[in-house]
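Hi, here's the filled form for the chain we discussed.

Project: internal
Contact: R.S.
Residues: 235
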Amino acid sequence: MKKKIVLVSFIDQLNAQLVSKLKAFPADSVVFTGPASVASTASAACASIYPDKSSYCAFLALNDVGFESVLEALQMLKAQMPNETIVVNIDSASKQLSSAAIAAANSTDCLLGFTDEQTNAPKLLLPIKFSYCSNISPTKQKILEALRDNPASSLRQLASKVGLPLSLASYHVHGDSRSEGLSQLRMLEVSKDSGRLKISLAPLGRIYLKGCKCEVESKHAVKAKIIAKQKRIAN
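And the returned structure, exactly as it came back:
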């Protein structure tokens, strides 16, 4: 059975030329997403693209045009449509929204779509992976998860939360000459609040937990299976 292709178009504004470009995309349905202020414009575009099949089109309002809101929207759509191919279209978005959509598409395995300015033909790009998705170890991930809801008031408290020796917790937070720690990777913020140490998630750490966690877990699971299989063969 052919996979259904859902075109997710991020919009700040729409005109006839942009609607024409969206019509040219070989998609089974379209989800417009953008600020609530463009909902009526998106509805009119839906009627133009699918005049007899309004159910093939939908609008998803964003709280803002920042990366986290766009990422959450794509993750929700991926969860609702796990078997469909999702193409993120950026033809009708501002630079800020386009940047957020490109970054979110890369972290959720969505394809990127745009219209070639010379040929006026739809183009698709494979996602480019964030390097952080492959560079964070399971222990560093546990530290990030431990700080998801509340910061730690000391390195000792963080070590206790994660179940690590103090020296190892310090290594993963601060790093050393051989390896960067989470604070150097700008995934944790280490500061002093009223003279007391405070270790909390940085924005990049929150983005990692939202966008890369599942990918890293699946990679480590595959690696564990390979090692287990090699041990069985050796025995």
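Let me know if anything looks off before we file it.
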